[in-house]
Design goal:
CATH superfamily of the largest domain: Glycogen Phosphorylase B
Strand content: 5-15%
Number of strands: 11
CATH topology of the largest domain: Rossmann fold
Order of helices and strands: EHHEEHEHEHHEHEHEHEHEEHHH
Number of helices: 13
Largest sheet: 6 strands, parallel
Distance between the termini: 49 Å
CATH class of the largest domain: Alpha Beta
Oligomer: single chain
Number of domains: 2
Structural class: alpha/beta
């Protein structure tokens, strides 16, 4: 079937971490089908993630808040999609915008497949807990969309690129979209200071004025704030590639560091890695979490903590020493 698909459109608008998780699948697809032209339709801000793709991948970045806003903007976007004469559309997002676009594609005779997000099984995971229940990763879910189009892909991605390691450089990305996914900032600051005292150079990652102000207040000997200083995601990826490890929340930075071949020590609270969002090729051995019957609160971390009087104790119960132990006692970090 796939030999008839020469011009493929893949759609995934947001969030940044979810877009990053498309990269191993799309890169593998492009290398395994060099005669297929693949267009990735996403928000313009995600372009650096696709700058290292094979030549048969084109990034199509758009602004959904202005040029393609509302139903009128979607109609304009559909007309542009139609003009490009795609053989098939893979909807990796499956939200109202993409449902509208793919419905119009179907009515125009374009083959379409869309992601199954597994909402029922994710709801069950939140209700009954993650014990012995590991859901399909987003990588597998994207892969299945392509299979529905008749395209078999072996996800064999290694990294966008890798930098030189072994310099005792550690990254810390302490923020996430929701409070329940953020390790207490006082404890993360302590983690950074303890690593710096042990001779590691610590690089802090974040974005936005509030985060920058917080990270600037953490700076000290061997602790360097990079937020707002590197000039964009491409430069951040370059620095991340040189880190021996990244300490991150369940956030976009976990996924971006994974794409450049950097080991991630990830800290989990309201969410759980068994829901399928662990970074590419990351190990459960590098997951730091506390087993509690109330975890996860939700799949994406946006719902209130279930506990009264001990808000997000799942994070507060993790001591900095647990995180540092992953770094200091790692053969990966300390090898010559």
């Amino acid at each position: 079937m796939c030999n008839r698909i020469k011009n493929l459109l893949i759609i995934r608008f947001s969030a940044l971490g979810d877009v990053a998780m498309t990269v191993p699948v799309i890169d593998s697809l492009a290398r395994q089908y060099p005669d297929m032209h693949i267009t990735v339709l996403s928000r313009q801000m995600t372009k650096p993630l696709f700058s290292y793709m094979p030549q048969n991948v084109t990034f199509w970045g758009i602004d959904l808040k202005n040029s393609y806003k509302g139903i009128g903007g979607l109609n304009t976007l559909f007309r542009e999609i139609k003009e490009k004469r795609f053989d098939a559309v893979a909807d990796f997002h499956n939200v109202l915008r993409t449902i509208y676009l793919r419905t119009r594609c179907v009515l125009s005779g374009i083959r379409v497949a869309h992601i199954n997000k597994g909402k029922a099984e994710k709801k069950e995971l939140v209700k009954n807990g993650p014990a012995n229940k590991i859901l399909d990763s987003s990588f597998v879910r994207y892969q299945k969309v392509l299979q529905e189009l008749g395209i078999d892909v072996d996800i064999d991605f290694k990294a966008c690129f890798t930098g030189k390691k072994g310099k005792k450089w550690i990254g810390i990305a302490p923020f996430a979209a929701h409070e329940g996914k953020i390790y207490p900032l006082d404890k993360m600051k302590q983690t950074a200071q303890m690593l710096a005292a042990k001779g590691y150079k610590v690089y802090l990652f974040g974005a936005g004025e509030k985060e920058i102000r917080i990270l600037e207040s953490w700076e000290g000997e061997n602790i360097i704030n990079t937020a707002g200083k590197l000039g964009g995601m491409a430069k951040e990826m370059e620095l991340m590639s040189q880190l021996d490890a990244m300490i991150s929340m369940d956030s976009a930075n976990m996924h971006i560091a994974s794409l450049v071949g950097t080991r991630v020590v990830s800290v989990w609270g309201a969410t759980h890695p068994n829901a399928g969002f662990l970074g590419w090729k990351q190990s459960m051995d590098d997951v730091v979490q506390v087993d509690m019957p109330c975890r996860p609160c939700s799949i994406y971390g946006g719902k209130p903590c279930r506990l009264e009087g001990s808000k997000y104790n799942c994070m507060r119960m993790i001591e900095p020493e647990r995180i540092i132990d992953k770094i200091v006692n790692s053969e990966y970090i300390n090898k010559d």
